[in-house]
Amino acid sequence: MNAHIYDAIVIGAGGMGSATAYHLAKSGADVLVLEQFQRGHIFGSSHGETRIIRFFYDKPFYTELMKTAYTEWRALESASGKPLLFITGSVSIGAKGNPYGRAVRHSLDVAGVESEWWDATELAERFPQFRAMNDMDILWQKDTGFLRAAECVLTHLQLAEQHGATVREETPVTDIDWQADVPTVRTETGQFQGRKVVVTAGAWAGTLLAELNLPLTVTKQQVCYYQPTDTDLFQPDRFPVFTEATVDGEFIYGIPAFGSYDTGGGLKMARHGRGQVVSPDTCDRTPDSDYIAHIDVYVQERIPEVGKSTHAEVCLYTETPDEDFIIDAHPDCSDVLIATGFSGHGFKFCALIGRIMSELVRNGETGFDLHPFRIHREHTISSGIPRLSA
Ligand SMILES: Cc1cc2nc3c(=O)[nH]c(=O)nc-3n(C[C@H](O)[C@H](O)[C@H](O)COP(=O)(O)OP(=O)(O)OC[C@H]3O[C@@H](n4cnc5c(N)ncnc54)[C@H](O)[C@@H]3O)c2cc1C
Fold first, then answer.
1. Ligand 1: which atom is nearest the Cα of residue 342?
2. How crowded is the C-beta side of 174, counted as CA atoms within 13 Å?
């Protein structure tokens, strides 16, 4: 038995765990982070060059939370001296009168966040890269952009270490003994005690907390990258983040070209959801050629100058039935805190979730309203309105 008792043990060093470790260590807590793989690995949900950050949601509480999330990301940039958040604005496209577009606009209005309906002429003037937009609702929101996803995770971890956190890589946690006097975390090579334990285990949370039977489904998701011939046309200063609810009932999204093409960057395009249910341990991480061909067809119609995809990557969603997060204490042990189920849209919240988890560990409470994220809420499978992730 290791005699040292940490203030907090964080299980999982992905988007949420790295942010939690940073906020805890910055506040002076003695933190141990246990990660089953190496930092920055590609087997979970937080790898790759970019993730969308946006205010627009069909549920107003997310829009409200994003006000602080943006501030936390800017604070991370200041603390690290690294540019991590790029603002491009966004266009959200959907069939005329589609309920999702209306709900999004409502959330933005309620939160006092500006947005504009555009018609096809305005879109063509601002972004001639898009084709054939007649009879669509087009919503412009100027604050949308993207985060450098993998770099954000590494930065949170680096700063956590600078503030004294210990990060142990290649250390899978096999069990949490929350009934012990001090919660005890077991690994294949030893065990550790923490006054609090934070479980940010992403797609593996369901297995690690099997006794809770959490309503989590892990799915295989894929993203395609493009290298347009005229690269300038699709840089973040010339091309926006965009989303489209297609007439076929799909949600497609795109992020401007970013990162070196040689190291896996490019303009990113994907379809949200409809992924195959998988186990994170056995999931085949090879992209499917059918999927890539499907996105290529969309691209040919909507933004033909982009060409064909050059490569693709696989990533996991850990979904709840209502796609809302789980942030709560273990029902039988208030010293074990859980943050999982971030579905296809959690990354933009990492910096804020890190702060919230740190407040819960240190103070037992937070000023943010976590009711929508309770474990024992009614998980309604909504609604007929397709939800947009990313
Ligand atoms: C294709 C795709 C596109 C997305 N696009 C967006 C977007 O544009 N905008 C947005 O906001 N969100 C987006 N998301 C969602 C977002 O990326 C995720 O919600 C977020 O990254 C989840 O972070 P996490 O920390 O919960 O999981 P992860 O980053 O996977 O972290 C969990 C970590 O826990 C570790 N772990 C698990 N079990 C153990 C154990 N037993 N012992 C030790 N370590 C363990 C894992 O190895 C992993 O490192 C997207 C997701 C995908 C897959």
1. 19
2. 6
337-389: per-residue pLDDT in tens?
A: 999 999 999 999 999 999 999 999 999 999 999 999 999 987 665 443 445 55
State pLDDT tens for residues 82-94: 999 999 999 999 9
Q: Which amino acid, residue 175?
A: D
Please name each of the domains of the chain with its CATH number: 5-47+150-214+322-373 (3.50.50.60)
Burial 226-236 (b: 16+ CB within 10 A, else e): bbbeeeebbeb
- Please give the number of the atom of ligand 1 that sits closest to the Cα of 44: 30
| pLDDT given at position 210 | 97
Atom 28 (ligand 1): residue with closest C-alpha? 14
Nearest CA to ligand 1 atom 7: 390
CB atoms inside a 10 Å sphere around CB 96: 9
Q: Residue 75 has which token pair?
A: 């604070």
